[in-house]
Design brief:
Length: 218
């Protein structure tokens, strides 16, 4: 009897070990199966810049605030990092500089002014300059901001306020003259697109600079 009981115990123990092994194997297989399912192939997607409709065309004249008048030479595509971009190639004649402006940043550009806007700017030039009593450093900062705003009328105001009706250097400080010349040339470049060779003549007439030239030459 005792021998039979021992045999039964041994058989039970063997069965337990066998069931544990099969359970372990099945769990291992299941884990392996899961891990295989979890491995996913990553497909690289090319990121594109936000789509925006072109508002400018080839050979259009535009104004970029920090540089002034430019001409669109081409519309090109390039991949920067993982992003596909479309941009304008804008040539700034005065600085001999070519800028790349992404189409999704074309809001920084503005079309060239119309003849009516040019005439309004000429009327601004005819007005008397505003004389401010604030420190020159503060005024210079305000003028610089207006010049780089890219806005035609603000540019005309700077030219009008800094105009001394003379080309004699002694009449202006160095920094004052620099700001005047920067604003004057930038305004003239936009006038030239609409008025051609008459741009400088009309500007100087409005500023009464031509009168002074006639007086000094006589």
């Amino acid at each position: 009897m005792k021998k039979k009981k021992r045999k039964k115990k041994i058989e039970r123990a063997k069965k337990k070990i066998a069931t544990k092994k099969t359970a372990h194997q099945s769990t291992f297989k299941a884990n392996v199966f899961k891990s295989n399912n979890e491995v996913k192939v990553k497909i690289k997607k090319i990121i594109k810049q936000p789509t925006e409709k072109k508002i400018f065309n080839l050979k259009d004249y535009v104004v970029y605030p920090k540089h002034g008048v430019g001409k669109i030479l081409s519309v090109e595509k390039a991949k920067i990092g993982e992003i596909d971009m479309t941009f304008y190639k804008v040539f700034i004649e005065k600085d001999k500089l070519t800028l790349s402006i992404p189409i999704n940043q074309q809001s920084h550009l503005r079309p060239i002014s119309s003849i009516n806007q040019i005439n309004k700017a000429i009327n601004i030039l005819k007005n008397k300059p505003k004389i401010k009593r604030t420190m020159w450093s503060r005024r210079a900062q305000e003028y610089e901001q207006k010049i780089n705003s890219g806005k035609l009328y603000q540019l005309a105001e700077v030219v009008k306020d800094l105009n001394k009706k003379t080309d004699v250097i002694a009449e202006q400080s160095y920094s004052e003259r620099q700001l005047f010349e920067k604003a004057y040339e930038r305004l003239k470049s936009e006038f030239e697109v609409i008025l051609g060779e008459k741009a400088k003549i009309k500007m100087d007439k409005a500023l009464r600079r031509d009168e002074n030239v006639i007086e000094t030459t006589e």
